[in-house]
Amino acid sequence: MRLYVPATIDLLARWHTAGEVPASDPGVLGAFEPPDDTEDGEYTALMSAADVSADLLAGPGRRVVLVVEAASPSQPVPARSWAAVHADLAERPAGADPDEDLGWFATQEIPDLIT
């Protein structure tokens, strides 16, 4: 199943170093599954995860959503199952427009995102 996992740059860095998203991590437990296999359904899940990502930020920062293919949200998600990352292109102030689109990044770009 495809899941949209809300995160922050710090969480993404921790998961990247570990090589997986632990199943016990609140991000996975709060992941969003698209309500259907349409583009609208995926966008809804993405933006719902982005809203939670914004809530995870303690102030200004970048919203991050990790897209994964997972057998179950109750199991760890190894890096090989990560499909993509959506993130703000730049740091945003607290209270910024919640509907602003996120940029798309390949998983190979994660090292650049977290540095």
Question: Keywords for this structure?
Answer:
alpha+beta; single chain; 6 strands; 115 residues; four-stranded antiparallel β-sheet; two-stranded antiparallel ribbon
Structural features, described:
By secondary structure, this protein is an alpha+beta fold. It has four helices and six strands; from the N terminus they run E-H-E-H-H-E-E-E-E-H. The chain has one domain (2-113). The protein is 31% helix and 22% strand. The radius of gyration is 13 Å and the shape is globular. The chain starts with a strand and ends with a helix.
The level of helicity is: 25-40%
Distance between the termini: 29 Å
Query: Which spans have pLDDT < 50 for at least 5 consecutive residues?
Result: none
Biggest sheet descriptor: 4 strands, antiparallel
Spatially, the strands of the biggest sheet line up as 1-3-5-6
Assign the structural class, choosing from mainly alpha, mainly beta, alpha/beta, alpha+beta, or little secondary structure: alpha+beta
Strand content: 15-25%
Number of strands: 6
Roughly what is the average pLDDT, rounded to an integer?
Answer: 90
Tell me the radius of gyration.
13 Å
Q: How many helical elements?
A: 4
Oligomer: single chain
Number of domains: 1
Encode the helix/strand succession as letters.
Answer: EHEHHEEEEH
Shape: globular
